[in-house]
């Protein structure tokens, strides 16, 4: 199973649940792999607004009903 014993943010848990890898999200969103790693593993990390939009656009290709508040406290 994905994500066992790894600290994960809401975004990381969503990726695990969908069976996707961080590099898939990095490629789809055109966000650097380092930023994706931080967004998926650090619960307190809130990306800049432009990065959030890129990530959400990529996420919505899989889950059209996803909202920013699903992943980050606004």
Automatic annotation (TrEMBL):
- UniProt-listed InterPro entries: Cro/C1-type_HTH, Lambda_DNA-bd_dom_sf
HTH cro/C1-type domain segment(s): 13-58
Protein name, entry field: Helix-turn-helix transcriptional regulator
Species name for this entry?
A: Bacillus carboniphilus
From the broadest rank down, the organism's phylogenetic lineage runs: Bacteria, Bacillati, Bacillota, Bacilli, Bacillales
């Amino acid at each position: 199973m994905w994500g066992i014993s790894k600290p994960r943010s809401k975004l990381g848990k969503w990726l695990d649940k969908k069976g996707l890898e961080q590099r898939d999200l990095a490629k789809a969103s055109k966000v650097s792999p380092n930023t994706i790693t931080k967004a998926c593993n650090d619960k307190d990390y809130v990306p800049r607004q432009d990065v959030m939009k890129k990530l959400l656009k990529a996420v919505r290709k899989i889950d059209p009903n996803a909202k920013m508040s699903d992943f980050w406290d606004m």
